[in-house]
Protein: Organic solute transporter subunit alpha-like
Amino acid sequence: MEESLNVTIDPACLQEPPLAGDMLKHLDTFGLCLYAMLTFMSSVSLLLYLEQCVYIYKKVSYPKKTTIIWVSGAAPVIATMACFGMWIPRAVMITDMASNCYFAVVVYKVLILLLQELGGSSAFLERFSGTPFKISTGPCCCCCVCLPQVPMSRGMLFLLKIGALQYAILKTVLSVLSVILWTNGYFDLSDLEITGTAIWINPFVGVLTITSLWPVAIVFMNTNSFLRSLNIIAKYAMYQLILVLSQLQTSIINILALDGTIACAPPLSSQARGSMLSQQMMIMEMFIISLVNRFLYHRAYDALPSETHDNNLNGKMTASWAEGSLQQC
Structure:
């Protein structure tokens, strides 16, 4: 009993994450090789994404190309932010905020991409207006099979867009607020007291997340059969996988670190080591997803009309308009 009470705790286990320079001093040969390999993976992910952006910008018309660039950029952006968080442990709060804000926009952009693949909002309404849509889908109501089907309408589509857009806006606002509170010592993930800010903000963000995923799932589950030639199921699966890895996996690791399951390893405390493991796993996972996304999005698209074709079309429209004006006179 006395021996258990006399156990001393390394002071580093109670300190904040080390500076980048101090962290490098504690790395052995294996640690340096691991850092170099993970940095190479994140760099390759980013370079492949930039090359893909140039390809899509040349091959796809506006506004669909901006949507594809947003959606396909989730994995490389998260990998890049995780690489920064790995090299600079004290910046994890900021890098996580950047990744979460970007992915919050991606959730909305996935919904827009589904609509654009079907011809846009107007063509979508012309095709599905009055068609009953099944709303008993995940993550909210996958078990509520008794829910009635709702006919698609302009108002219904507006609600679906608002449901996905609110997460992009509120998640960004709450993330910035969390960082501001964190810099002043008011936001701490280890503070589970009822008076702490983290225990109020994080559950609210969870509710926003579920609410935003539901509209995207509704549209996908009711329209994916029309888009299978575009590999939409594989694209949606990659989006879902990024969601699980960047949100659920990180939350589980943070809980294990707070519980002490992930042991302290000086100069990293238990919580800092959990964050480090999360960043390193994220880089490897996002690297693989980036390679898969390149295969899915780097495909042959319909050729864009040439400038000569546009000029001829504009000339015909002008001539038709002038002819109609003369007839009216």
